[in-house]
Give the backbone structure.
Amino acid sequence: MNPKKYIFFTGGVVSSLGKGISISSLAFLLQSRGYSVTILKLDPYINVDPGTMSPYQHGEVYVTDDGAETDLDLGHYERFLNISMARFNNATSGQIYYEVIQKERRGDYLGATVQVIPHITDAIIEKVKYAAEMTDVDIVLVEIGGTVGDIESLPFLEAIRQFRLTLNPEDTFVTHLTLVPFIAGANELKTKPTQHSVQRLREIGLQPDALLCRTDRPLPENVKQKIGLFCNVSAAAVVDALDVGTIYEVPVQYADLGFDELVLHKLRLGKRKLNITGWRTKVERYKNIEKEITIAICGKYIELQDAYKSIIAAFTHSGMENDVRVKLKWLNTENLTENNIQDELADVAGILVPGGFGERGIEGKLLAVRYARENKIPFFGICLGLQCAVIEFSRNVLGIDGANSTEFDEDTKDPVIHLMETQKSVKVLGGTMRLGSYPCNLKEGTTAAAAYDEISINERHRHRFEVNNAYRSRLEEAGMCISGLSPDGELVEVIELTDHPWFVGCQFHPELKSRVAKAHPLFRSFVTASKTYFNDKNQQS
Ligand code: GLN
């Protein structure tokens, strides 16, 4: 067997340069040349996983099939590569320290003083090796979270340095993602921040093989020469990663710049034919779409769109397949009232209520559901969105005024949504929700079954509450169809309304399985319905 190849991605100067997208794009190109790949994300924070972090801190929590709550970059990996990630594709300082401390308590270190070097660094190396072993791919890409110079990242960079010593030089590649800002006052592109961040990297003992320079304009040859000289890389390995219109253009840009070829050359891997014609066409076509519809996202973290990364992506994929650009209108449901709802939602083609936790903004979400139901506007409720749809229906159709979820009112007389039986004994919050992929059976002839074009599905979950079975028959008698159930029939997974063109709620998170190669069926179908609604409405007026 040929030795495995390792590509490490570090970041410098500022955060949010799009390391996750860069690494996914490179991995996609290598995959498109016939190499098998996986990506490991190393996160320097002390939380064991992001599951307990507020969306304001961390954005979306990405759930894998095997039930891990992980960094949102894993979403990019899956969407670009069209493969599923697992728990071992993400490791945090918290997780690593936790494991080392548990070993220490067991006495596994046989009297040694337990230290960052070698114990923590060894544990980091083990994580990289484990991901390599579990996937058995040709190339393992490793993204190191944070920015060079952060105290937290140091053990990770040190571990990479040590690990590289055990490998042949031609089996590893280090990419540093950096920023080359244009300073208008000086009318100049500035290379100093890049020089400094590479200096920091080299102090730690890591010499980058390539620099991906984020910039808003092409880097002239002399600027590349200068960066190359000061950073000890050849000018050819200074790649100008220009801002692009959609993130899915990045692989195309890298391919055109020959970035993947540069990597293959250093890794002594054969060039093999690159086949990204399908992707290229899709992106080009999407860029030129003129038709646009607006869909309202009625949530509470709207000022922070990182919290809805996968939902945004699922709409892009569905837009690609429906030849329509989906514009998202972000509505904070805390500000939604009976008085302004008409103004806010009058011109939208669809309404989505996403997942969420806690009572804040709930009444506004219920208003949005009602508006969609009564005005026959396509409605999609995800997780908490399904729960809101059930509460709204119970209150306004069944006439159960106080219907609620015990999440918002523990003593409600009519808990139409309540804690799952398995959740009642849970005391610890981290990693204890109903997490990961579970099977669900759909009812033939329903909107959901038509969207999937099959009736046995598997979807990813992240919740503690569920529809209360005691209210099921009343809901059904009044026109709410339970179109998806867990195989034992105990958990409501999908609901819909029979006398509505498209009104679907699901207890799982379909957005986590939408990919560029194939939009999620429910999102695609929701966008189709919204497009139809928009067309019909415009024809009438
Ligand atoms: N808070 C709800 C629950 O725990 C919904 C969770 C979600 O939307 N992810 O069941």
User: Anything to note?
Assistant: The first strand starts at residue 5 and ends at 11. The chain has a mean pLDDT of 95. Residues 5-282 form a domain with the Rossmann fold fold (CATH 3.40.50.300).
